[in-house]
Amino acid sequence: MKGVSWRLILIILTIVISVIFFLPNTTLFNAMPDWWKRTMPDKGIVLGLDLQGGIHIVFEVEGEKAVEVALERMASSLSETFKNKNIQASAKKEGSFIVVTPNNMDVRKAVEDSFPVLTLAEGTDILKYKLKTEESKRIIDSATDQALEIIRNRIDQFGVAEPIIHRQAENEIVVQLPGVKDPKRAIDLIGMTALLEFKIVDDESPVAAEIPASILPGEEQQLLDRFKDRIPKDTEILFQREINPETGVVIKRPYLLKKETLLTGDLLTEARVNIDQRFNEPYVSITFNPAGAKIFEDITSKNVKKRLAIILDGNVYSAPVIQEKISGGNAQITGRFTIDEAKDLAIVLRAGSLPAPLKILQNVTVGPSLGRDSIEAGKLAGIIGTLLVVSFMIFYYRLSGVIADFALVLNIILLLGAMASLNATLTLPGIAGIILAIGMAVDSNVLMFERMREELRAGKTPKAAVDSGYKKAFWTIFDSHVTTLITAAVLFQFGTGPIKGFAVTLSLGVAINLFTALIGTKTVFDIILSKKEIKRLSI
Q: Given CB 3.0 to 4.6 Å as the disulfide criterion, which of 24, 207, 434, 456 pairs with 44?
């Protein structure tokens, strides 16, 4: 019984943990004391778009417009460059070209030095430049990434739980917002242009020392209310969202900033990721147009050793220290970034300078009544499926069938608990995956029971037949479950939205089924056979 005891404790422990995680999805959670709600999980399983209603939108990022905007800015910047270098020349955008006149060596050198991404398409009396193919593709791809970042920022502010946002095809973005009651407001909010701002961090104010270094998400308003009457009138508090890469914990870092916007993103022409050759660390290089370069030089010369906050849509993304005056319109932002963090910051910086128009290709509103109907239909299917399986197992395998039904119930409890612990999004295909898991919950037991029958016919005792049945069926069960898990992993990796929901429930159901079949039912058999000498097994 020694080996049985730890297995029994393990089963009871997993049941208790599963129930705790699933409680937020029941009405019992509201009746729990406050200390329980503060210390225990409070989210559970989240309903997907097809169950609680919401909107499904497909945006097309008009990348060609982004290329046109880039050409217009380059033409404007070239005109400024000619003026600063006292070159008698002009540059203007015509179609997909930048036309420069006149054609001479000084003009050509100025263009090639300023924009090496341009290539000469025609060079007679006038010069016609066009973007290199790889640069056009980079701008379109960058515009799509930028739009994706803007949409994420907007949706975070909108407060939608478990949104699904991802790219599809080359320049399309799919957005699913479960539970949104006002689709028009959501679409208007997503389509707004991002605002990029540069402001000085006010570290000299006495109040700045009293502001905590970090707070938890959800405590922002409490902190603002606490300091609203104490901070100077020309300052404000904004927040930076940070994620601990090791623990995954999210915090909000408050900054006391001067309200005055010193520079905006419309003067930024480029932001890209480079690698520092000395330390092999990524950094973000930014480029302003001539007007922006002059403003940026003034800002940095007057605020050496102060921090300059980079803000997008009211959220602080970085606050580097100004080490010295920066001239020429080029700057570097360093901060021990990972390559992904540097890419994200570059996307954010470009968000204010190179917005690409978004075109709605598809806009579908899913009513919550459809979601309720789906849930009820799923419940009914699950109940009917469970009853049929339970009845068949009892009819065909007698007492052993009851043990298999115990594994089925245990499987469902652990599956719901696992999904709740992961805050998984339950979709209609996910319900199908749960129902499939119900059928698979007894499949392994059927294999083992048939093996036991063969051993009993060979004249073995019930205990020996049970042990032999589990031993001989193990690898067959293990192989079939592993192949199913591989299929689920492929579905999760390459599927989107509802397909991922099905893959999650399928993979969890298969993994849990191995536990309930090989440990759960074996434990029950061992307890029954250890009580007394049983000469006949009900199977």
A: 24
Amino acid (one-letter) located at 398: R
Pair 238, 255: CB distance under 8 Å: yes
Distances (CA, A) of 29 to 41, 162, 376, 517: 10, 21, 22, 31
* Residues pairing with 358 in the sheet: 61
Distance CA 142, CA 139 (A): 5
- The pair of structure tokens assigned to 96 is 């997909």
146 residue type, one letter? Q
pLDDT at residue 474 is higher than 80: yes
The DSSP result for 14-42, as a single string, is HHHHHHHHHGGGSTHHHHS-HHHHHHS--
In the chain, the N- to C-terminal Cα span, in Å, equals: 23
Cis peptide before 102 (omega within 30 of 0): yes
**Rounded to 5 degrees, what are φ and ψ at 56?**
-125, 115
Cα distance between residue 274 and residue 283, in whole Å: 6
Strands (E), 88-225: 90-94, 97-101, 118-123, 127-131, 164-168, 172-178, 196-200
pLDDT tens digit sequence for 332-389: 776 566 777 777 777 666 655 445 677 888 888 776 655 667 677 777 877 887 788 8
CA-nearest of 421, 416, 403 to 512 is 416
Q: What is the 3-state secondary structure (H, E, C) of 273-300?
A: EEEECCCCEEEEEEEECHHHHHHHHHHH
Place of tokens 């993994």: 511
- Closest to 295 (Cα-Cα) out of 265, 256, 321, 320: 265
- Return the SS3 of 333: strand
Cα 402 → chain centroid:
42
